[in-house]
Specification:
The chain is an alpha/beta fold and about 200 residues long. Helices cover about 30% and strands about 10% of the residues. It starts with a helix and ends in a 15-residue tail after the last strand.
């Protein structure tokens, strides 16, 4: 009985203390009506290939609000220009730029562009036709490539080719090893089959 009374006394005291603390912390706030569009964290409208389209000289003045997410997509040839040599700097610099703008990033990897599609500003390869897959791999898969990759992107890879699948698996494993669990990346959007990764083909098969 004595133990129960002590327990009750302690619990009652703690309950009274907590109630007093909650009352002391109570804040009254009257919200105001706003006509502004809210920036939803990690969702909503997304900037494409730019950290902030409002400050990008290569785009027209936008008609949509600020964003919390940026979406960048790169072709395999941009990220593995030489066998086993990965252009992590391109991705790392973009992630850092997004982080400085308090934004998260979505990344897509691709293997095929549209027929005669070229890189555009501010890419250093501006106006060059997009091969999609790296030149070093194209030489192994395309009998018409020979020793150099000409400015021609009409070649469509056979996605069942064992050499293609082996090298692609190694590329994806390398990307996953470096960027898995990165808190600044919302997701890795892997679009590897078809034009722009959309399971469709604009190039002649």
């Amino acid at each position: 009985m004595v133990i129960l009374n002590k327990t009750c006394t302690i619990l009652c005291f703690f309950s009274l203390f907590l109630s007093t603390l909650v009352q002391a912390m109570t804040i009254e706030y009257q919200p105001t009506v706003s006509q502004k569009i809210l920036i939803n964290p990690d969702i909503g409208i997304t900037d494409h290939q730019t950290i902030d389209i409002h400050n990008n000289p290569n785009w027209n003045i936008p008609s949509y609000p600020k964003t919390s997410v940026v979406y960048f997509r790169w072709y395999w040839e941009q990220l593995e220009p030489k066998k086993g040599v990965y252009n992590y700097k391109l991705i790392d610099d973009t992630i850092l730029a997004a982080k400085r703008a308090n934004k998260k990033i979505v990344i897509r990897f691709m293997t095929l562009a549209g027929l005669n599609e070229t890189y555009y500003s501010p890419n250093p390869q501006k106006a060059k036709k997009i091969l999609g897959i790296p030149c070093w791999l194209k030489k192994q898969l395309d009998p018409h490539t020979h020793d150099i990759c000409t400015n021609d992107n009409s070649f469509v890879v056979n996605y069942n080719n064992p050499k293609f699948k082996e090298n692609l698996q190694q590329f994806i494993a390398a990307m996953g090893k470096r960027y898995n669990h990165n808190p600044d990346i919302l997701r890795l959007d892997v679009g590897l089959v078809g034009t722009w990764g959309r399971m469709a083909f604009s190039n002649p098969l």
